[in-house]
Structure to design on (323 residues):
């Protein structure tokens, strides 16, 4: 495994992050393809054995059950001090005043609930899951800073917003001497490259590390176009995000992969990893071969001609996923 610092911070993370939205209790209605404790065991073991120490979840994944599974996995398969544990806050957990958003009340309530589910005293990286239009950024940033000072959180991160919103929140922290964000969890893949125009320049300038979600475009660049999996056939978000107009991108990945004699996922992930602003793409594994391909991608070095061929079919699209 390779390791790097998250942005310009001193937090060392594995170059691959284990995405834990794949784990949860399907009876809670979050996803039909989520894995329970027993089904997830081989993936957690594989992550530990291969040095994938960066684990990312959220309070809303499985409506809390992902955090519970991750907490039990840490106790069973590794040690708390050997994991860089990340979770998130923003989306609705219940209908009461502290159940959603980034108000001081919600942040304080939700961190305590996450810590209880994760069975830990602190999280290494606490991320706001989206921008909150209803709460002043100063209120959010001060509340997050107070969590750091209380020892419940080590570092702060953000996810999926407009660059001006992220800059506004960082500026509020700078003006008041509060803790800044060290990471941005944004969507980035060969099939969705809008962050190259929207966010990446700001991240590079500010020393913030990108930890992209959906680096394989929800599997669209990991298999020939049209092939279905249990997840893709039960994923309305992915179905809405991509269309047949994106087929040339998947075809380009397939051509490079076939020429090299390696799986498409390795090619697509290697392309994401070569971007200098990317610290660690998030791999949402539901099968052991998903992690096998991700680990192998670390040693795939694309040529200039291959990179050009992969990038050529891309079509500019409206940025999405910020709500």
């Amino acid at each position: 495994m390779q390791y790097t610092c998250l942005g310009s911070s001193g937090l060392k993370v594995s170059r691959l992050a284990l995405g834990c939205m794949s784990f949860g209790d399907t009876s809670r209605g979050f996803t039909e393809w989520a894995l329970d404790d027993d089904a997830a065991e081989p993936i957690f073991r594989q992550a530990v054995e291969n040095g994938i120490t960066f684990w990312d979840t959220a309070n809303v994944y499985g409506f809390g059950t992902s955090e519970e599974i991750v907490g039990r996995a840490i106790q069973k398969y590794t040690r708390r001090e050997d994991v860089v544990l990340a979770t998130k806050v923003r989306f609705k957990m219940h209908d009461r005043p502290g159940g959603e958003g980034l108000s001081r009340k919600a942040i304080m309530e939700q961190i305590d609930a996450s810590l209880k589910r994760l069975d830990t005293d602190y999280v290494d990286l606490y991320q706001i899951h989206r921008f909150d239009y209803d709460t002043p950024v100063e209120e959010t940033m001060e509340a997050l800073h107070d969590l750091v000072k209380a020892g419940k959180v080590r570092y702060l991160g953000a996810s999926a917003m407009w660059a001006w919103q992220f800059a506004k929140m960082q500026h509020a922290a700078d003006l008041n001497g509060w803790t800044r964000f060290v990471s941005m969890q944004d969507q980035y893949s060969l099939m969705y490259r809008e962050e190259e125009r929207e966010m990446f320049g700001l991240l590079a300038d500010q020393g913030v590390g990108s930890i992209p979600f959906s680096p394989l475009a929800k599997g669209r660049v990991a298999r020939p176009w049209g092939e279905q999996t249990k997840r893709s056939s039960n994923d309305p978000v992915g179905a809405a995000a991509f269309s047949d107009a994106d087929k040339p991108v998947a075809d380009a990945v397939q051509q490079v992969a076939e020429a090299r004699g390696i799986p498409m996922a390795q090619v697509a992930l290697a392309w994401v990893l070569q971007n200098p602003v990317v610290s660690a793409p998030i791999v949402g594994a539901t099968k052991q071969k998903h992690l096998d391909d991700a680990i192998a991608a670390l040693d795939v070095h694309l040529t200039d001609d291959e990179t050009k061929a992969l990038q050529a079919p891309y079509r500019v699209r409206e940025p999405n996923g910020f709500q």
Notes: The beta strands are 3-5, 12-14, 17-19, 54-56, 84-89, 123-128, 153-159, 181-185, 209-210, 282-283. The longest strand covers residues 153-159. The radius of gyration is 19 Å. Residues 104-118 form the longest helix (15 residues).
